C-alpha cells in the first residue's frame, strides 16, 4: 500500500517539498507494522532510518541510572521518530516503542542520498525544516519548567471558582466577623428595645431562619474553594515532578559529557605517550 501524499504534506520535515518530490519520496518509503509494546529502536542503536507514523501511537522514553523509565513524549499520525540521529548519524538518544498497533513509513539513510541526488534543492528544504525544529527545541530548553503554581492556577480558574474564592475569603475575614456581629447586635436591640411591636420578637425565629439559610449557602461555597485548594496542591506536585525530571535529565546529560571528555582525554594522553615512547626508541645511543 503506497503512502498518502497528503500525509507526507503534514509531516513537518517534508512540508516544504513540492508534489513531484513527495512522489519520489513515496517510492523510497518502506512500510513497517509494529505490535503494541514492540520496540522500534533502543537508546544507542545505529540510526539506519527515520520513521513517519502513518497510524497508531508511539512513545519516546529513556531509562535513568536506576533503570527507571522516563517518558519523554507521545507521538501520533504524521509525527516523525528518530529524525535527529538520522540526520547527524549519531547513536539514538532515546528508545521508542509502540503504544498501540502502529503502521510506520520507514525512510532508510541510503535512500536519503538517492532522494537528494534526484532532487538536489530538496536538501535545502529538509535542512530548513530541521533547522526550524532544532531552533524550536532550543527555545524550549531555554524556557525553564519552573512555574509559579499560583499563576498557572489563576489562569485556569472559572468564573464560579473565582466567586467561590471571594466568598470564602470574605467569610473567613475579620471584616465579615465584625460586620455580621454588628448586624446581630442591631437586630436584637431593634426587636427587644426600640420597637414596641418587633418584626422578629424573642426567640428571634426569623433571625434563626436567615442564619440557617446563610450557613446552607456558605458551606458548599467554602467546600468548593477547599476542593480547588486540593487541585492546586496536585498542580504543585506536577510542577515539582517536571522540575525534578528536567534536573535528572540535565545531570545525566552532564555525566555523559564528562564521560566523553574523559574518554577523549585518555585517548589524547595515550597517543602522546605512544609518540613519546616511539621518539625515545628512535634516538641513537651515546
Would you mind describing this structure in some detail?
- The protein has 286 residues and is an alpha+beta fold.
- The protein folds into two domains: 5-142, Jelly Rolls (Sandwich); 149-274.
- The chain contains nine helices and eight strands.
- The chain has helices spanning 5-10, 19-28, 83-88, 109-118, 122-142, 149-155, 159-171, 174-194, 205-282, and strands at 30-34, 39-41, 49-55, 58-63, 69-75, 80-81, 95-98, 102-108.
- It has a four-stranded antiparallel sheet with strand order 1-8-3-6. Strands 2-7-4-5 form a four-stranded antiparallel sheet, with no helix packed on it.
- A hairpin with a 5-residue loop joins strand 4 (58-63) and strand 5 (69-75).
- It is elongated.
- It starts with a helix and ends with a helix.
- The mean pLDDT is 77.
- Residues 232-264 form a coiled coil.
Order of helices and strands: HHEEEEEEHEEHHHHHH
Unreliable runs: none
CATH superfamily of the largest domain: Jelly Rolls
- Gross morphology is elongated
Structural class: alpha+beta
Quaternary organisation of the protein chains: single chain
In order across it, which strands form the biggest sheet? 1-8-3-6
Distance between the termini: 79 Å
- CATH architecture annotation name of the largest domain: Sandwich
Query: Whole-number radius of gyration?
Result: 34 Å
Compute the number of strand runs: 8
CATH topology of the largest domain: Jelly Rolls
Major sheet = 4 strands, antiparallel
Short description, anyone?
Keywords: Coiled coil, Membrane, Transmembrane, Transmembrane helix. This protein has helices at residues 5-10, 19-28, 83-88, 109-118, 122-142, 149-155, 159-171, 174-194, 205-282, and strands at 30-34, 39-41, 49-55, 58-63, 69-75, 80-81, 95-98, 102-108. It has 286 residues and is of the alpha+beta class.
Amino acid at each position: 500500500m503506497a503512502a498518502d501524499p497528503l500525509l507526507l504534506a503534514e509531516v513537518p520535515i517534508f512540508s516544504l517539498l513540492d508534489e513531484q518530490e513527495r512522489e519520489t519520496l513515496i517510492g523510497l518509503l518502506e512500510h513497517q507494522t509494529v505490535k503494541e509494546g514492540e520496540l522500534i529502536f533502543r537508546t544507542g542503536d545505529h540510526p539506519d532510518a527515520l520513521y513517519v507514523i502513518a497510524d497508531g501511537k508511539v512513545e519516546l522514553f529513556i531509562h535513568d541510572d536506576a533503570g527507571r523509565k522516563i517518558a519523554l513524549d507521545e507521538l501520533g499520525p504524521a509525527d516523525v521518530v528518530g529524525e535527529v540521529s538520522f540526520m547527524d548519524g549519531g547513536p539514538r538518544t532515546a528508545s521508542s516503542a509502540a503504544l498501540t498497533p502502529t503502521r510506520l513509513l520507514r525512510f532508510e539513510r541510503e535512500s536519503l542520498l538517492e532522494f537528494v541526488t534526484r532532487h538536489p534543492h530538496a536538501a535545502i528544504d529538509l535542512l530548513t525544516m530541521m533547522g526550524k525544529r532544532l531552533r524550536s527545541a532550543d527555545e524550549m530548553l531555554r524556557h525553564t519548567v519552573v512555574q509559579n503554581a499560583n499563576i498557572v492556577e489563576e489562569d485556569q480558574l472559572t468564573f464560579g471558582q473565582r466567586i467561590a474564592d471571594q466568598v470564602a475569603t470574605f467569610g473567613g475575614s475579620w471584616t465579615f466577623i465584625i460586620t455580621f456581629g454588628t448586624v446581630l447586635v442591631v437586630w436584637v436591640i431593634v426587636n427587644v428595645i426600640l420597637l414596641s411591636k418587633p418584626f422578629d420578637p424573642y426567640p428571634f425565629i426569623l433571625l434563626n431562619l436567615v442564619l440557617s439559610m446563610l450557613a446552607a449557602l456558605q458551606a458548599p461555597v467554602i467546600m468548593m474553594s477547599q476542593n480547588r485548594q486540593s487541585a492546586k496542591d496536585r498542580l504543585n506536585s506536577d510542577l515539582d515532578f517536571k522540575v525534578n525530571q528536567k534536573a535528572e535529565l540535565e545531570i545525566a546529560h552532564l555525566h555523559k559529557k564528562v564521560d566523553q571528555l574523559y574518554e577523549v582525554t585518555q585517548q589524547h594522553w595515550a597517543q602522546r605517550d605512544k609518540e613519546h615512547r616511539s621518539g625515545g626508541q628512535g634516538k641513537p645511543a651515546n
